[in-house]
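hey can u check if this looks right to u? its 318 residues, i copy pasted from the old doc so theres a chance i mangled smth
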Amino acid sequence: MLRLFLDNRIGVLLLLPFFLLLYLLGDIIGAVPYFGTTDSAAFLTTPNWTYWGVAIFQFVILLLNALGLNWVFNSQEFLEKNTYIISLNYLIFNSFFIDFGQFTWTPLIQTCCILLLAVFFGIRPQNDARKAAFNAGFIFGIALFFSSKLLFFIPVLLIMFIVLRLFQLREIFLLFLGMATPVFLLFAVSYVAAISFVFPFEFSWKLEVLQWHEITIIILFHILLVLSIIGLRARLLKASLRLKKQIQVLNVFTFFTWLIGLGAFLFLGQISLLSLLVLPLSFYFAYALLSSSLGISSHLFFYLFFLSTLLKFMVLSF
């Protein structure tokens, strides 16, 4: 299976719905909340859909996200050749964060972050980046509709941008203008249509009592992160300057996502921010799978991780 996705064979993308169907079937057999709670701090009202309406919605968005994330990896030349393991990594790693029977805005938050990374990776230090700055801010402003807690990520965007462009005052201003534009448009529409919107940013801190399976998932993801870093270090030894800049941006996103996401999970019990860690891990672990130094160990861990994503439905349904 890994060999098919690691090679430059675009036809393997047809197998992605099969993996999602496996998780959907597992959810039907053992549909239990297994990791944290959904993030309700959104502008938009949660739709009151049936199980199959929610399942189809999440199935389609996850599939599009997998394809989009893989396109970003290949189009920005993170490797010398195209590979399609990124899409598979995304679906498998993300399976712990998605409950097909419960509606959540998490997949759409991930969609916005994929688009955001695509904009950042497209910035060239020697070129004007005012348009990219506004676009990045605008995408982030849309993401705020799905989770107001993304406000914690505003400093992260600034650091990512400064890593690429140093401190350009006009571009930073356009970044903030882009963030404010969707929110301003929302309140303008609400004023004209006489609809009341309240920014949902109220929450109370409380240290959560973790279940054994939640601790297990956190440990698995940290092992995944360690293996990914080992593979990434080997890759950076022969990386171009452009790739090193892109990795620096991704490292900033990864560190703060881990920090903020883990804090939101431990003190608020919510997983939407922590789930964003799946995006950089999907990139990083591709290097681990292709690393000659890690060899069989990374492949073995991948299969064990995949097996655990399937077994969780049976284990947690008892």
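The chain is about 65% helix and 0% strand.
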